[in-house]
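R.M. (postdoc): so does anyone remember the format we settled on? I'll just put the structure tokens first.
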């Protein structure tokens, strides 16, 4: 006779901006309350809360209803799930669905920060008001990805910069990688030291002039096989390769 194995369940992970001190009852966001309602959770059910400080807290739901939700923190502990290889992703701003995918998956793959960059060939052009809304949306995409993948530190979505602004602001000391189908070297040939900055062009790629500026600023053109990758595929392939070769995979 075969014996069935107990199913493994995990308490829902929710982001909460509050200070998560043991014994405190904290109010959860409207988004979290809707998620709990969809899961049909009730008072007394367990959830995991985090606020981005590197800790996660086990809590019990104290209220779930139309007026919102709250939870009482039982205990908290430091749980580090960050890669030892700090990767900054500079992504050419692309169409909204593609940009969301990049942000979500880059978070899952351990990116420490994302820099949206507008370039000469960027199709998406954002007014100041629309840009502010998109940046808030992008940060929320990253937070939701942290809820799913277990990260307790939230990657920062930096303010959108033009290509010249980004090149002027880029931190010194990075290993600088420009993913290009005609790159000089492959990932295995790199001498990688943290932190790493990966630059990806938008749908139309970087212009020759922009590539020259990047090269003059210390970016090394790196190829990922003989195929041309889409703007939403390239950063994910690069992050996965870097984590496998030099990070925590």
């Amino acid at each position: 006779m075969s014996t069935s194995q107990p199913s493994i369940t995990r308490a829902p992970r929710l982001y909460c901006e509050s200070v998560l001190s043991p014994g405190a009852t904290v109010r959860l966001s409207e988004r979290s309350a809707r998620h709990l309602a969809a899961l049909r959770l009730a008072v007394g059910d367990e959830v995991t809360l985090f606020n981005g400080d590197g800790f996660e807290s086990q809590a019990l739901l104290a209220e779930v209803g139309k007026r919102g939700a709250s939870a009482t923190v039982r205990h908290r502990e430091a749980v580090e799930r960050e890669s030892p290889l700090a990767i900054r992703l500079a992504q050419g701003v692309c169409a909204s669905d593609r940009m969301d995918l990049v942000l979500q998956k880059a978070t899952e793959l351990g990116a420490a920060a994302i820099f949206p960059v507008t370039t000469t060939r960027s199709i998406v052009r954002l007014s100041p008001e629309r840009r502010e809304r998109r940046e808030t949306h992008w940060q929320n995409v990253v937070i939701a990805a942290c809820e799913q993948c277990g990260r307790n530190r939230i990657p920062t979505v930096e303010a959108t910069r033009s290509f010249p602004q980004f090149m002027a602001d880029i931190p010194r000391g990075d290993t600088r990688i420009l993913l290009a189908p005609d790159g000089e070297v492959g990932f295995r040939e790199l001498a990688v030291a943290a932190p790493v900055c990966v630059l990806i062009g938008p749908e139309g790629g970087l212009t020759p002039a922009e590539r020259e500026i990047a090269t003059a600023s210390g970016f090394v053109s790196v190829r990922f096989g003989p195929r041309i990758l889409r703007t939403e595929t390239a950063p994910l392939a690069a992050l996965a390769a870097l984590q496998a070769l030099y990070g925590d995979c």
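R.M.: ...and that's the designed sequence above, right after the tokens. Also worth knowing: The domain at 13-78 is CATH 2.40.240.20 (Ribosomal Protein L25; Chain P). The chain has two domains: 13-78, 87-246.
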